[in-house]
Amino acid sequence: MKKTIITVTGRDTVGIIARVCNYLAEENVNIEDISQTILQGYFHMMMIADTSASKKDVGDLAEDLDQIGKEIGVSIHCQHEDIFDMMHRI
Amino acid sequence: MINIFEVNETNEMIEQENLDVRTITMGISLLDCIDSNLDKMNRKIYDKITSTARNLLPVGREIEREYGIPIVNKRISVTPIALIGGSACKTVDDFVSIADTLDRAAKKVGVNFLGGYSALVSKGMTPADELLIRSIPMALAKTDRVCSSVNLGSTKTGINMDAVRLLGETVKKTSELTKDVDCIGCAKLVVFCNAPDDNPFMAGAFHGVTEPDVVINVGVSGPGVVKHALEKVRGESFEVLCETIKKTAFKVTRVGQLVAQEASRRLNVPFGIIDLSLAPTPAVGDSVADILEEIGVEHAGAPGTTAALALLNDQVKKGGVMASSYVGGLSGAFIPVSEDAGMIRAALAGALTLEKLEAMTCVCSVGLDMIAIPGDTSAATISGIIADEMALGMVNQKTTAVRLIPAIGKKVGDSVEFGGLLGGAPVMPVNPFSCESFIGRTGRIPAPVHSFKN
User: Fold this and answer.
1) What are the DSSP calls for B279-312, one per residue?
2) Which ranges of B284-435 would DSSP assign to H, the alpha helix?
3) Pick from B125-129, B275-279, B439-443: least confident
4) Residues 6 or more apart whose Cβ sits within 8 Å of residue B243
5) B6 touching A, CB under 8 A?
6) What is the pLDDT of residues A26-66, one digit of tens each?
7) Residue A28 C-alpha, separation from nearest chain B C-alpha, in angstroms
C-alpha cells in the first residue's frame, strides 16, 4: 500500500501534534512513523501514514489538514509518498 | 525510506521556489473529423474535443491535490487545422468558423489555451494552407483561447520565403486587429523552423500527424529552483556549477514524469513526452534571466550571456534525460522577454537587444519570443527578422521560432501589458535599415548541404 506523508511546519506551540493526531484518529488514518526536528528556529514534523482504512482520499485529507493548519497557525501538507520517492530516489 | 530533510527540500521547492508542472497538454487528432460539409465538420470537432478532454481538468486537479504540486495549465493541442479544413473551407470566414468552434470547445472543457490553428508549409503552400494563414488575424481577433502556429522551414526542406513574406503581413495585420487590447493577437501566433510534433507549450503546440489519436504531453518548469540551487554554489568552478544544474533538473523532471504517468493512467490516454524546458513566468523568482545573473553576468544580454545560456541549456538536458525515458517537444531554456521579469529588467536597462536575443536563440530553445517592437515596423522588416531566425534553425538543425508583437501606435520606450502568464514588455528598437528587396524575391531558400545525409 502506498504511504502518505504528512508534514507540519511552523512555530512550536502547545498541542500541534495532539490536534493533528486527533484528526487522523477520527478519520481512521494509521500513523506508522513520526519524526521531528527544529530547523532554523522552526518546528518540522513528518508523519508516515497509512490512509487505506480512511473513507476520505488523500486529496480530501489534505484539504482538511490545510484548514486545521490555518486554525493553529502552522502549515500542514498531506501528499502521496510517490512525489518524494520520484525526486530523491533513482 | 524518505527522510524529513528530503521532504522539506521538495516542499520548499514548491512553496518558495515556484516549482510547478507548467502544463499538461492533451494532444487530440482531428483527422477523423474531416468532412466536406463545414457545419457537420464543426460539430464533429466540437464533439470530439469536448468528449475526449472532458476529464482533463478534474484529473489535473486531483493530481494537484494528492501530490501537493501545482499544475499551472491544462491545455489541448489539435491536428493542424489547415489539414482538417481543406475540403470544407472555401473562404477565410469558413476557416474562422473552425477557430470559433475550437474556442467554444476550449471554454467548455475549461482549458486556458488550445493550439493547432496551424499550417505546415516548410516547402510549399496548398490553397488551404494559404487560406488558413490569411484567416489567422481574424481568427485570433475573434477568439480568446485559440493559438496559431505556422512552420515555415526545416533543415530538410529549406525555408519557404513566400510564406515568410506572407507571415510578415499576417503578424502586422493580427496586431492591427487586436490593437485595442495591446495587440494580444500576436501573443497567440508563433512561426517555426523545424517545429516539433509533440510540443506541449503554447502558442506553438499542435498535434502532429505522426502522433496517436490522443496523447498526454507534459511540460515541466522550475527556473526558481535552479536559481536557488545556484545561490548555494556562488563562486565555485564550472564543474560544480554544471553538476548543480544537472541534479536540480533531474529532480524537477522527475516530478513532471510522475505527473505525466499519473495523468496518463487516470485519463486512460497514452503518455507521449516530457518537455524539459526551463519556462519562466512574470512572477518574481521564476526567471531564466535571474539564473544567468546568478551564473555571473550583470544583466541578461551582457557579454558572456550566450555562453552562460549554452551551458545552462545543456545541463538542463543532461539532468533531464535521465529522469524520463521519453523526452521531446522543445526541451531547453525559454527566453521570452515579456514573460520573464529578469528579461524585462535587462531590456529596460539597455543590456538586451534584439540582435543579442537572436544570438542567444542559437544555443537554446526556442527563439525570438514575446518581443514587442515599434508599431510602425514594416511587414518586410518583420519578415526579415523571421527569415533570419528560420535560417538559424535550418542551419543548426534545431527548432527556432518567432513571436513578435508590433505594438500599434507605440514606439521605443513605451510598453505593452497582457497580464497573467503573458506578462508585459517594453517596446524594443529594431534595426532601421530595409530588407524590402530581399523579402520581395519569390520562391524558397534551398535546404543546406548538411541536410543530405542519406
Assistant:
1) ---SSTT--HHHHHHHHT-SSTTSTTHHHHHHHH
2) 288-295, 305-321, 341-349, 354-360, 379-396
3) B275-279
4) none
5) yes
6) 999 999 999 988 877 788 999 999 999 999 999 999 999 99
7) 18
Q: Does residue B218 surpass a pLDDT of 70?
A: yes
Q: How large is the ipTM?
A: 0.89
CA B424 to chain CA centroid, nearest Å = 16
Q: Is the pTM of this model over 0.90?
A: yes
CATH 3.20.70.20 fits B23-193, yes or no: yes
Say what percent of chain B tops pLDDT 70.
Answer: 100
Taking alpha carbons only, the member of B141, B90, B98, B89 closest to residue B117 is B98
CA B394 to CA B402: how far, in whole Å? 14
Confidence bin at A1 (pLDDT 50/70/90): low
> Does domain B219-440 sit in CATH 2.40.50.140?
no
Domain boundaries, chain B: 23-193, 219-440
Residue the block writes with cell 545560456: B309
Query: B417 has which bridge partners?
Result: B424
Check if the beta carbon of residue A17 is closer than 8 Å to that of residue A43. Answer: no
| Topology of the domain covering A4-88 | Alpha-Beta Plaits (3.30.70)
Is pLDDT at B1 greater than 90 in this prediction?
no
A68: which 3 cell numbers?
486545521
Contact state of A7 with B7 under an 8 Å Cβ cutoff: yes
User: What distance in Å separates the CA atoms of residue B339 and residue B334, rounded to the nearest whole number?
Assistant: 10
Nearest-angstrom CA–CA distance, B227 and B207? 32
Query: Is the pLDDT confidence value at B365 over 80?
Result: no
B6 neighbourhood in chain A, CB within 8 Å: 84, 87-88
CA distance B98 to B291: 41
CB B91 within 8 A of CB B42: no
CA torsion through residues B247, B249, B252, B257, sign: negative
Domains B23-193 and B219-440 share a fold: yes
Q: Mean pLDDT across the stretch B400-428?
A: 92
* Best CA proximity match to A64, nearest among B111, B65, B80: B65
Judge whether residue B65 has pLDDT over 80: yes
- The answer to whether the CB atoms of A79 and B68 lie below 8 A apart is yes
Contact A9 B62 (CB under 8 A): no
